[in-house]
Amino acid sequence: MNTPEVPVDERRTRFTDFQLDKTLQKAIAGIGFEFCTPIQAETLPLTLAGHDLIGQAQTGTGKTAAFLITAIQRLLQSPIPFAERFASEPRILALAPTRELALQIAKDAEELCAHTGHNVVTVLGGMNYDKQRDQLRNEVVDILVATPGRLIDFLGSQDVFLDQLDILIIDEADRMLDMGFIPDVKRIIRKCTPKEERQTLLFSATFNQDVLNLSSMWTQSAEFVEIEPEQKTAERVEQTVYMVGEDDKLTVLTNYLQRPEVSKAIIFANRRDQCRDLEADLRRQGISTALLSGEIAQSKRLRTLDKFKDGSIKALVATDVAGRGIHVSGVTHVFNFNLPENAEDYVHRIGRTGRAGEHGVSVSFASEDDAFSLPAIESYISQKLECTIPEESLMAPLSQPVQPRRRRSSGGGGRRPQGRRQRRA
Q1: What does 347-367 look like in DSSP terms, one character per residue?
Q2: Which of 198, 336, 338, 367 is deepest in the core (most CB within 10 A)?
Q3: What is the mean pLDDT of residues 385-402?
Q4: Domain boundaries, the chain
Q5: Higher-confidence residue: 342 or 66?
Q6: 15-226: which CATH architecture?
Q7: What is the DSSP string of 205-232?
Q8: Would the pLDDT of 416 be above 70?
Q9: How many helices (H) and strands (E) does the chain have?
Q10: What contacts 2, CB < 8 A, 6 or more positions away?
Q11: CATH superfamily of the 237-395 domain
C-alpha cells in the first residue's frame, strides 16, 4: 500500500515523517494532506507518544485532524479482536459544544478511517434519536462524536458506557464554558475511564482561569501547546465597517447583496429573533436566503447547508452558534448585521470567508446600539478597522417597503452483557 512521496521541506513537517500506520497514511494522502499545520507539527509528536495535551489554537488551524490522527493511530496500534468488542463501548470519545462542529469532526473522522475499517458514530440533538440509540446498542463503536446533552440522555438510559475509553477529546472547551455545558461535561467525565488510565486531549481557542482550572482537573501531567496565529484575522479578508443608523441597515445590506461580486454570503445577527426577522425581510426584498439557527431542526439545517453549498441559496442568516459549524468553500462575503458583543466571535465570523487562499470580504454595520463593541474588537485583532459611511448607491430606496418592527431589547457486535466488567488490561 504505497502513498505518494512528499518532497522534503526543511521549514515544514510532513505527515510521512511520523511512523503512522499505512492505512492511515493512505487516507491522509487521499484527503490531500502533505505538510502539517503548526498545531499539527507541535502536537502530534506529543500525542502520538501518549501524552495528555492542552492545546490553544484558533478555529481553522487543523486541530481536528491533529487529534483524530492520534486517536486512529491508537486504535490501529492497539487493536482488540472483534469477538472481544461489545456494542455501547466506544474507545474514543470526542465532545463538541455544537451540532455543526460535531458533524464536522465526524465527517473528518470518517475520511481518515476510509481504509482502517473503524466505525464512527455521532450522537447529537435535533436528529433521529431512535437511529442513534440503535447504532449504540447494536454496533461496535470505535469513535463516538457527541454533544453533551444527547450523550447525557444515552448515559442515563445505559445505551452507552464510557469506562472503556482509551482517549477523551474535548474540543472548544471555552465555548463549552460560554454555553453553560460544563456541568454536563463534568457528569460525562465522571462516567469515563479514570484520567490515569486514558489519554485526554483538550483544545480551546482561549484560556481564562476557569478553563485552565478545568483542564488541570481533567488531564494528568499534560503538555501545553499554544499556537498564536500571525494575525488573528485572515490576511485575505478585506474588512469594512459602515457607520449606519439601525433603521438603514436593511437598506444597505439588501443593496450590497445585489452587487454582482456577491455570490455566496453569510449574514450574522446576535439573536435568534433578529435572524428570523432579518431573513423574512430579505426574502421580501427578493433575496434568496435561508435561516440557520439553533431552533431549526438539524435535518433542515443540513438541507439548507447543502443548498447553500450548491448555490441554490445566495445568503445564509445565522447566529454565532450555528455559524461556527459552517465550513463552506467559496463564501465571498460575511456581513455582521450586528457587531458581536464578544470580540472573539468577530474573528470566528469573518473566518467563514477568505479560506483556502481565496480572497474574502467582511462588511460590518455599526449603529448607536452596537458601535460600543468596536474598541474591544480592534484591541483583540490588533488592528484598526476602516470605518466609513455607505456609498450613495447602497442607500437607494428598496423596491418593497420595509416592515416596521417593534424594537426589542438586546439582552440576550452484540449488546453489552449485563453486569460490570473490569477495565481491559
Answers
A1: HHHHTTSS-TT--EEEEEEE-
A2: 336
A3: 87
A4: 15-226, 237-395
A5: 66
A6: 3-Layer(aba) Sandwich (3.40)
A7: S---HHHHHHHHHH-SS-EEEE---SSS
A8: no
A9: 15, 14
A10: none
A11: P-loop containing nucleotide triphosphate hydrolases (3.40.50.300)
